[in-house]
Amino acid sequence: MLSLKNLLLKNLVPAIKRFIPEHPQTENRRFLLISTTALGDTLWATPAIESLRNSFPKAYIAILTSPIGHQVLKHNPHLSKVYTLDRFSFSLWKKLYQDQFDTILLFHASQRLILPLLSLLGAQNIIGTSGINKGLDRLLTDPMPPIYEHEISRRLRIVEKAGGKTATERLSFFLQPQEKLKKQKGRWIAIHPGSKDPFKRWPTQNFIQLGKDLKKHLNCEILITGTAEEELLMKSIANQIPGAHVANPHLSLRSFAALLETMDLLICNDTGPFHLACALNKPVIGIYSSTDPNLCGGHHCPSAITIGKRATCDPCLKRKCRLPFCLLQIGPCEVLNAALKVLS
Predict the structure, then answer these.
(1) Which of 50, 219, 224, 298 shows its CA 20 to 30 Å from the CA of 104?
(2) Which fold has domain 184-343?
(3) What does the domain layout of the chain look like in residue ranges?
(4) Residue 145 backbone class (left: φ over 0; alpha: ψ -120 to 50; beta: rest)
(5) Hey, is 140 helix, strand or coil?
(6) Which of 297, 306, 327, 40 is nearest to 204 (CA)?
(7) Which of 94, 48, 43 minimizes the C-alpha distance to 65?
(8) Band of the pLDDT at 1, cuts 50, 70, 90?
(9) At what angle do helices 272-279 and 253-261 cross, to 10 degrees?
(10) Which CATH superfamily is domain 9-161 in?
(11) Stated pTM of the model
């Protein structure tokens, strides 16, 4: 079925494209960036956004992103406009077409219809990485070969292909003054035990033991954070760490970022909050095994420590894994020592 869908798209899109005039490339370039995935993926785009703006100060730079990406980028000073993809519609296509983009940079999109949509916007150049577009690479005008590199570097390479230069490799998140919170007294350590993907979760019992050890060695307050879907997990862990607090699991992303900025340290799995802490330049420890930190760990972030072990299964089952025992290679003591190093 998927191959039939691709066959239809591959043949239908070029046929329709013949009737859509291309937008000319002028001195003041018009770029559309695509990042319609999750929190970490969107944050990985921020160095590329800043580098593109630095390279083309007078350009019109818009981005099409997810609802969570909109929260990340709504106050980014390097963007001219933020489009949010709630659902596909003719109205969205029309608005994008009227913006007359001459170049589209496809950072990452989970939706199959994104690339066909981009092909019909009249842009002369559609630049992206081959092999990650659900079999629709031929719709790219400038496909780039995949290489072993961090996801931040991959996006910067796309900017360079468009004629820009790398200006920074650091993540960014722009909290507004009115969003910021006053720091509470004492030393506060946030523990984020959840992850969208179960195969990335360090064992719950390890987080509990770590919380107890942190309180014993550092005389600190422990705050358990997470999403609404992780509320039971948060409470279960907090109840077994004496004096631990539970954060509001219903916070918006920007409110969570403001809370995270008041923490002295975040400890978490390979998940979005790890990269959010990097963007806020907060000390953070990430626990990795089933994923490769060289591809998706801390990158040019002095405040981040990645504790990673090689996956024990070859090949790794990823999302099919029901028991990520590879993460048992990392014990509470190793993470505690990293925390003591960070906070010394």
Answers:
(1) 298
(2) Rossmann fold (3.40.50)
(3) 9-161, 184-343
(4) beta
(5) coil
(6) 327
(7) 43
(8) very low
(9) 60
(10) Glycogen Phosphorylase B; (3.40.50.2000)
(11) 0.93
